[in-house]
Amino acid sequence: MNILKRLIIYSLLVAVAAIYVGPFLWVISTSFKTASEATENPPRWVPVSPEFRASTQPFAAKLPDEIGRRVGIIKDNYYDRVMNDPSFDFALYTRNTLIIALLSTLGASISSSLVAYALARLHWRGKNLVFGIVLGTMMLPFTVVMVPQYDLFRELGWIGSNLPLWVPAFFGVPFFIFLLRQFHMTIPNELADAARIDGCSEFRIWWQIVLPLSRPALAVVALFAFMGAWRDFLGPLIYLSHRRDFTLALALQFFQSRSGGTSWELLMAATLLVIAPIIVLFFMAQKTFIQGIATTGMKG
Amino acid sequence: MRDRVKPREQIAGILFALPFIIGFLVFMAYPLCKAVYFSFTDYPFLNEPVFIGLRKYVRMFGDPVFWQSLRNTIVFALMSVPFSLGISVLLALLLNNKVKAPGVWRTIIFVPSLVPSVASAMLWLWLLNGKDGLVNHLLGTKIQWLTSETLVLPTLAFIGFWGVGQTVVIFLAGLQDIPTEMYEAAEIDGANALQRLFHVTLPMLSPVIFFNLVMGIIGAWSVFDGPYILTGGGGTNRSAYFYAMYIRDAAFLQTDVGYASAMACVQFLIVMTLTALVIWSSKRWVHYR
Fold first, then answer.
1. What is the complex's ipTM, to 2 decimals?
2. Which end of chain B is more exposed for a tag (fewer CB within 10 A), N or C?
3. What is the residue range of A6's domain?
């Protein structure tokens, strides 16, 4: 690669990186500011208090005080005014979100793996029909069945509870079934055949052979399921009616609409609190994320 | 291939698939049938549905809000799907170069796509704010990106660039699957970089682009979260009022389940037709290996 080409590529990369990281940094910066600093013109990336600017002391001497002031502002924004805001009970909403996310992850992983096993490794009449339906429903927009599904859950008396948000996951998720089926097909038949000769039931073959061997694909499914539940907005918006049951996504929207979008530093602090767990999860499971997405998005 | 199905395996197959079969019947097939039925009724949730024939569909044709939401959805899809796919291909091509620390660059582009739509809406609400927003500060303007009737749809489509990370990773994997021999052969034949892009890279990538195009078109019909928050439920004079928003409002604010179901049925037909159309046209430009 010649130097000119390398120069162009790296400058493009740096520009792109700045555009993608910039919004994050701006959210962090805003959440570290006081109300007047947040709307200050011209805006500052690194907030500096008026006291700091007014002080005639040398930089190194006045810095510790400034850091102390800034920590105070951050604690005030995040802890006193967001996490302890009665309309944004962060601990409660995190718990609500986690319950829904963990239950849907558990349900989606187990049920989708069972169905995928039937589609990938068993011979039975009706298999192709079921697989066709899996593919067909994978494409179906949620809004098409949103209203009659609501009617169904209303008949069941589930409105206002979190049941509509995780119970359906226990009945297999088409996309996950498809994904696990593809993976199950790559597992060699010899192990299962040997187990069958030894009189093993299909359920034991699934549980003791296929499930452990499909761990990488299951990890991808679990991650997607968890992320999907964490990010979901329309579901909670429709089904959750009491504020004590809100998920983080719904609570964040409520926090914003209630404050009328004025206290930007608080809204950005709340936003970061909703994003942070996802980012932590990503860095803990980076490989699974990237590989999962790279391999699943390609099958036409 | 075994032709005969063993009874034991037949039973096992049905049992293993049972969760999905039940789930499909209860949460998909039954609601879909009900949506069709509701669409022929007047049903305000609290009373029983009353059969009124095609009246909801007739009303739909004369309803300016319906046409507005349809128009907005189509305009938005026409802007955002090609734009996002184009950006994704360009970013994937950029990342596919041999560079130092490829994982770092990839992560930077990927992570924003994980941000929940509500949270990224809050972020853009602040960045695009007409008075104190960073974007206006950097441009030296005071543009009302989200409340202007003409700018709101292009703005919503444009900020989609921040969430393309997953598509970029998919395209990147597709690019890395292209055998190097193909490039070598093209080079021997005297193809320059641009010719290699249009005659090797893009054709080889076309199945992946195609898959994401179909998903993008379908996805555009259920766009809700971001625009709902960014435009406060549909924008000035419904300039960003989308199809999914109207279904939701008709059902849950106006409690007109019949009308919402009629729209859902039309949406189902539109999505199915579009998907069939894209699949049919793909024969012309998708090179499957």
1. 0.90
2. N
3. 2-83
